[in-house]
């Protein structure tokens, strides 16, 4: 009996493997791997999908950035080459159909397995992105660790300028670009998973990185004055950073969502304080004005020493949030060369920094509460516990109460290291 | 099983059938447990996963029954081969007298006939007279015997000796007084006499005696002891076995200077009458193992066994297993260490290898270097080797599976690189892999067969043509060259030649499984392989012991613990004495350091001693094994050992 059963199992396995084996097998080079998926509003159809995938040419990459030839409108736009990659744009009723429609022009199957970035155009997200996210959440190939960003202007243009300027590998460039979020905290690193869960959540709202194209005309021209003015608290928006260089695309700030619609943005500076509250602030150098000699600044390297402690409670029916930030800072430099490292003065510096941070964090919360009315901080989580069941919580509708919440911010800064100097001394003869 | 033909026959190989005869062993230690278990349940039970042992004597009975059952099958074969031997033997008996006669002419005729002296010029018969009056002759095979010994110590004394008195047989006296050879025995049977001459001894026949005297005169050309060819080590002995069995036995005996080290000689091969030696340490090895080895070797009925390689195939348990079940080594020190672990060594004349039985899979991955190096280094080497075995078996299969089925698992940059490399390659990955594997195997095989003088050519062919040119010609992608090269390296790092072969064969299976079913197929393959390995036994000892039938750790299996922690022999071979060394093998750690001149020393020691005692009573209690509180630093180490043991037992 046992023998017969095992015989049967073997026969089944054999038939199963023979008849289904290799069914899913695809050679590596029989597919192209889209690294970016860009979504724009369509003109003749629902959506315009742009993909960028690396070519398999040996000389792929090369220097200089791609020669962008923009093809005219229409159902399908011509493929462009940008630094060893091909870019295709297509208009289709849905993303998934677009992927199949590429098959009419691209000689290999388009795969989203190795997608790095999902780029959404601002126009699209302001109208709501619910219909476009659903297929990506369900589709097997699309990974949920894809970084998601909203781009100022058309995603198509953005992708045309999405080139790797340093190495040949575009995927590496894109991966490391999102890692830059951790190094500077000027923009958040949001994966599709984070974003999607935030959209479904009842106690927080979604946000993404905000990016755009810089035309290199932002760098002011003209005579240099004898005295350059000190200009602190500069928040930048993508496309507005005063710089020139090779990479036209840039990330700066946060796109704030309410529901599935984008309602506003935070600039790069505000993003830092926003990230401090959410605990995702890794590190960032912030210039603090020297109180004693206001024409000088003290750049300090801040980092969160502990996860921020956020507590929510109801006070006379009004939700109150208390945010307590624990920060550490290293002194980058003291331009005025005042001896702030001194035990008495360092306390003063601590206090200054605390005041500085506290002020700006409060400002950011205020801005989001008043202008956007969207709880991207996730404060709602602290209040959900006050409700005995989910029904009550949903009836309470946190999102409508967020704006009336009182927020108390307390920042504690400890300066830990003073860099390579432990005592500043004045430059003589000055 | 063999009766079924066609596809059902194939399936019957795969399906599990309860073996008709259980090959099991008498294990003295488990007898008591077994009896008790039978009393309790009245059923067979498993002792620590080992199938219920049955005494060897019972097996013999079963065997004979089996034979009578299967006689119908066997008689048919014996008609052709088995009978033949008998005919030959009968012929011998018919032509040659079974006993040596008193008549010297008759004896000379006997020798001449036996060795076909008219045609066969190897046999030398030298006639002379002893004491000037008794006729005598010696007989030996030219080349096999040492001429100087014969001239100086047999013929010379015999011919010089003049005063011989008449006796019934003077050979007794010759043996006593005249022959100057170290070994000399009386032989009266023809068969034995022939064998003595064949192995290189000299037989002396004297008129009037119905026996001859065989003197030890073996002296043939032999290779000197040299360094190991396949099992080289950096630190450790640099001796290897030679083709001569006697030398090999001596090499082992020189390392194991133990009076209990026994060497039994058994004849193998009916026509070439080879010899093999079974070495073991009496009183340490489980007698069942020796019994079984001898039973198997004695039960061989074949005409030619050239050496250990052929013998291994004749006595191994599972012919169909990919993994070898007998360890073959060319190192006397390795043989010795296995003997001391309670295993047996079989050394066959003709090949410079000893066969070690029984072994487990872990033993196959050991080298003598592990033991000669400090334990950290030895452990590192072992881990590297396990990794090498993994690479040699799985890497090409995994590569095929990854690139064909699981592309999402490859890092993007690597994937693009692979795609770029593959862009101009016209074959699917599986063909690429097989192509490279085949060429690599070709290089390997050709490298062994190529005459030494033109040996350099193989490097050029291998490196240039197959490496560079194949890539440039777009036949294979460069990534694949790396894969195959790594696989090759891994294969060479596997210490046992046979295990490396097993890895090579299973590698092919995994490539095909990976190509058909991806990771799913590879995991299926691993499961099937593990099951097959778990079913394999080496002389009754499961190959996966320690892992599958869980036995206590000898601290020298995969992770090599410090040498003083290795208190037990591997339990899988069930040695009669399982203890290798006492709990505290380094007595010096218990003792006070050599007294220094300082007078303060004693006081301090006294203080420390009282302190440790205090801790001891307050803290953990040490099992009353050793004298308590006798040492200071020693206590700490004992504690450690206790913990170690507990770990092991878990």
TrEMBL record, chain A:
So which domain of life are we looking at? Bacteria
Domain annotation Spore germination protein N-terminal: ranges: 24-202
Q: Does the keyword Lipoprotein apply?
A: yes
PROSITE patterns recorded: PROKAR_LIPOPROTEIN
Its Gene Ontology biological processes?
A: spore germination
Q: How far does the signal peptide extend, from start to end residue? A: 1-21
Name its cellular compartments.
Membrane
Keywords, alphabetical? Germination, Lipoprotein, Membrane, Palmitate, Signal
* Region Disordered: start-end pairs: 60-80
- What is this entry's stated membrane topology? Lipid-anchor
| Domain Spore germination GerAC-like C-terminal stretches | 253-419
Annotated Gene Ontology cellular components are: membrane
**Where is it chiefly localized?**
membrane
Question: Per the record, where are the segments of Gly residues compositional bias?
Answer: 60-77
Q: Which InterPro entries match?
A: GerAC_N (IPR057336), Spore_GerAC-like (IPR008844), Spore_GerAC-like_C (IPR046953), Spore_GerAC_C_sf (IPR038501)
What protein family does this chain belong to?
Answer: Belongs to the GerABKC lipoprotein family.
Name by which UniProt lists this protein: Germination protein, Ger(X)C family
Per the UniProt record, the lineage of the source organism begins with: Bacteria, Bacillati, Bacillota, Clostridia, Eubacteriales
Automatic annotation (TrEMBL), chain B:
Q: Provide a GO biological process annotation.
A: spore germination
InterPro entries given in the database record: Spore_Ger (IPR004995), UPF0353/GerABKA_families (IPR050768)
Which residue ranges have biased composition labelled Acidic residues?
636-650
Q: Looking at the record, which segments are called Disordered?
A: 61-83, 587-650
Q: Which GO terms describe its cellular component?
A: membrane
Alphabetized Pfam families for the sequence:
GerA (PF03323)
Q: Where is the composition biased (Basic and acidic residues)?
A: 64-82, 605-629
Q: Which residues cross the membrane?
A: 383-402, 453-473, 479-501, 508-534
Q: List UniProt keywords, sorted A-Z.
A: Membrane, Transmembrane, Transmembrane helix
What is stated as this protein's family in its record?
Answer: Belongs to the GerABKA family.
Indicate what this protein is called per its UniProt record: ABC-type spermidine/putrescine transport system, permease component II
Q: Which organism is it from?
A: Ruminiclostridium cellobioparum subsp. termitidis CT1112
């Amino acid at each position: 009996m046992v023998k017969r059963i095992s015989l049967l199992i073997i026969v089944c396995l054999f038939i199963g493997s023979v008849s289904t084996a290799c069914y899913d097998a695809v050679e590596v080079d029989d597919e192209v791997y889209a690294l970016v998926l860009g979504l724009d509003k369509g003109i003749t159809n629902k959506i315009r999908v742009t993909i960028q995938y690396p070519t398999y040419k040996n000389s792929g990459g090369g220097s200089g950035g791609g020669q962008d030839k923009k093809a005219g409108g229409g159902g399908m736009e011509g493929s462009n080459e940008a630094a060893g990659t091909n870019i295709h744009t297509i208009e289709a009723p849905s993303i998934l159909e677009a992927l199949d429609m590429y098959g009419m022009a691209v000689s290999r199957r388009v795969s989203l397995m190795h997608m790095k970035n999902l780029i959404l155009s601002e126009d699209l997200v302001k109208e709501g992105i619910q219909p476009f996210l659903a297929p990506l959440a369900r589709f097997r190939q699309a990974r949920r660790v894809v970084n998601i960003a909203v781009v100022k202007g058309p995603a198509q243009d953005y992708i045309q300028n999405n080139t790797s300027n340093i190495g040949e590998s575009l995927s590496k460039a894109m991966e490391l670009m999102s890692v830059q979020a951790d190094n500077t905290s000027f923009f958040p690193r949001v994966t599709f998973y984070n974003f999607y869960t935030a959209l479904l959540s009842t106690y927080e709202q979604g946000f993404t990185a905000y990016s755009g194209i810089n035309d290199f005309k932002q760098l002011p021209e003209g005579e240099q004055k004898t005295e350059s003015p000190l200009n602190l608290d500069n928040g930048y928006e993508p496309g507005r950073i005063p710089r020139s260089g090779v990479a036209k695309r840039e990330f700066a700030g946060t796109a704030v969502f309410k529901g599935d619609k984008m309602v506003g943005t935070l600039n790069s500076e505000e993003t830092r304080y926003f990230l401090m509250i959410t605990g995702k602030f890794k590190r960032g150098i912030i210039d603090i004005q020297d109180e004693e000699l206001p024409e000088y600044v003290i750049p300090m390297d801040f980092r969160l020493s502990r996860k921020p402690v956020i507590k929510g409670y109801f006070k006379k029916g009004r939700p109150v949030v208390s945010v307590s930030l624990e920060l550490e800072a290293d002194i980058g430099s003291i331009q005025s060369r005042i001896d702030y490292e001194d035990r008495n003065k360092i306390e003063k510096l601590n206090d200054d920094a605390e005041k500085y941070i506290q002020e700006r964090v409060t400002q950011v919360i205020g801005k989001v509460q008043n202008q956007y009315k969207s709880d991207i901080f996730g404060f709602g989580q602290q209040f959900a516990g006050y409700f005995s069941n989910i029904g009550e919580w949903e009836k309470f509708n946190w999102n409508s109460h967020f704006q009336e919440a009182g927020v108390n911010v307390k920042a504690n800064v400890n300066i830990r290291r003073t860099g390579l100097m432990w005592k500043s001394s004045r430059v003589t003869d000055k | 099983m063999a009766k079924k033909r066609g596809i059902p026959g194939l399936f019957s190989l795969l399906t599990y059938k309860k073996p008709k005869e259980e090959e099991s062993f008498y294990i003295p230690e488990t007898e008591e447990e077994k009896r008790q278990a039978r009393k309790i349940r009245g059923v067979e039970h498993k002792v620590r996963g080992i199938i219920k042992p049955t005494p060897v004597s019972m097996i013999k009975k079963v065997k004979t029954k089996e034979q009578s059952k299967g006689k119908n099958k066997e008689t048919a074969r014996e008609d052709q081969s088995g009978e033949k031997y008998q005919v030959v033997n009968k012929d011998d008996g018919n032509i040659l007298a079974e006993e040596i006669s008193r008549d010297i002419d008759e004896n000379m005729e006997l020798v001449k006939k036996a060795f076909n002296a008219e045609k066969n010029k190897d046999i030398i018969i030298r006639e002379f007279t002893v004491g000037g009056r008794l006729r005598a002759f010696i007989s030996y095979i030219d080349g096999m015997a040492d001429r100087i010994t014969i001239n100086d110590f047999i013929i010379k004394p015999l011919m010089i000796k003049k005063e011989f008195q008449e006796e019934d047989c003077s050979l007794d006296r010759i043996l006593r007084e005249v022959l100057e050879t170290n070994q000399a025995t009386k032989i009266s049977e023809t068969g034995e006499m022939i064998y003595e001459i064949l192995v290189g001894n000299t037989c002396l026949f004297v008129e009037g005696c119905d026996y001859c005297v065989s003197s030890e005169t073996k002296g043939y050309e032999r290779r000197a002891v040299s360094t190991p060819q396949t099992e080289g080590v950096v630190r450790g002995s640099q001796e290897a076995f030679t083709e001569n069995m006697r030398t090999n036995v001596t090499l082992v005996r020189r390392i194991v200077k133990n009076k209990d080290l026994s060497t039994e000689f058994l004849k193998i091969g009916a026509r070439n009458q080879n010899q093999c030696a079974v070495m073991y340490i009496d009183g340490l090895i489980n007698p069942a193992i020796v019994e079984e080895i001898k039973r198997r070797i004695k039960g061989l009925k074949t005409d030619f066994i050239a050496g250990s390689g052929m013998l291994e195939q004749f006595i191994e348990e599972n012919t169909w297993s990919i993994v070898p079940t007998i360890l073959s080594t060319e190192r006397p020190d390795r043989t010795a260490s296995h003997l001391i672990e309670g295993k047996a060594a079989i050394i066959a004349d003709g090949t410079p290898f000893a066969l070690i039985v029984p072994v487990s899979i872990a033993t196959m991955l050991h080298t003598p270097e592990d033991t000669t190096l400090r334990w950290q280094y030895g452990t590192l080497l072992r881990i590297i080797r396990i990794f090498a075995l993994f690479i040699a078996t799985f890497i090409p299969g995994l590569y095929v599976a990854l690139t064909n089925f699981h592309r999402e698992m490859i890092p993007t940059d690597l994937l693009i690189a692979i795609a770029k490399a593959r862009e101009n390659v016209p074959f699917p990955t599986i063909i690429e892999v097989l192509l490279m594997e085949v060429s690599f195997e070709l290089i390997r095989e050709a490298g062994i067969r190529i005459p030494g003088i033109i040996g350099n050519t193989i490097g050029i062919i291998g490196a240039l043509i197959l490496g560079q040119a194949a890539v440039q010609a777009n036949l294979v992608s460069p990534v694949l060259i790396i894969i195959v090269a790594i696989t090759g390296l891994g294969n060479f790092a596997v210490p046992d030649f046979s295990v490396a072969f097993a890895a090579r064969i299973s590698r092919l299976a995994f490539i095909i499984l990976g190509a058909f079913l991806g990771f799913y197929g590879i995991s299926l393959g691993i499961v099937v392989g593990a099951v097959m390995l778990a079913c394999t036994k080496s002389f009754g000892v499961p190959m996966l012991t320690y892992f599958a039938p869980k036995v206590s750790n000898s601290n020298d299996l995969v992770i090599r613990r410090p040498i003083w922690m290795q208190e037990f022999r591997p339990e899988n071979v069930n040695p009669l004495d399982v203890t290798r060394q006492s709990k505290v093998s380094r007595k010096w750690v218990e003792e006070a350091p050599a007294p220094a001149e300082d007078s303060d020393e004693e006081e301090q020691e006294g203080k420390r001693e009282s302190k440790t005692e205090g801790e001891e009573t307050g803290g953990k209690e040490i099992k009353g094994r050793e004298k308590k509180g006798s040492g200071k630093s020693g206590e700490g180490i004992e504690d450690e050992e206790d913990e170690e043991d507990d770990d092991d037992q878990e």
